[in-house]
């Protein structure tokens, strides 16, 4: 084994023990590979970014299942590919569910995109609930979620705003989303 493979193996072992620096190192090392792969597949920066984040989140959650007889990059790409396939299936299912009755109702809904009073009330209640959950997080996680999802800033813009390296922003957002999911799950 060469030195690079030894270093990678040690980093993966540290990540399996929950070492955040190891997670960050893996994210830094493989982010561009996974993102580039998804950008070619999706031809959409937002989808590529979202799938890449989901890939690392799933990989980090399941790092104990990683078999080192396979290349780590190959494992990540396989996870990423499966997430993309799931996204496509979900979108197709939503389209078919909305147009399955053969009527023009789905087309009318698309053309009339103005929300009804009931829709607006539901959205406001959902947003208020989401904001409540976000406020349960530590301030730096609240900030990164607000910048990304409410101010709709790119990762690069968030990095400039926070005066932090881009990869720190990616990891922080990844962690913030995971913590937010746990808060929501525990409150329900």
UniProtKB/TrEMBL annotation:
Key words of the record: Sigma factor, Transcription, Transcription regulation
Organism superkingdom: Bacteria
CDD domains: Sigma70_r4 (cd06171)
Coiled-coil region: none
Keyword Transcription regulation: yes
The keyword Magnesium is annotated on this UniProt entry: no
Annotated signal peptide: none
Domain RNA polymerase sigma-70 region residues, every copy: 34-93
Residue ranges annotated for the RNA polymerase sigma factor 70 region 4 type domain, each copy included: 130-180
Family: Belongs to the sigma-70 factor family. ECF subfamily.
Protein name: Sigma-70 family RNA polymerase sigma factor
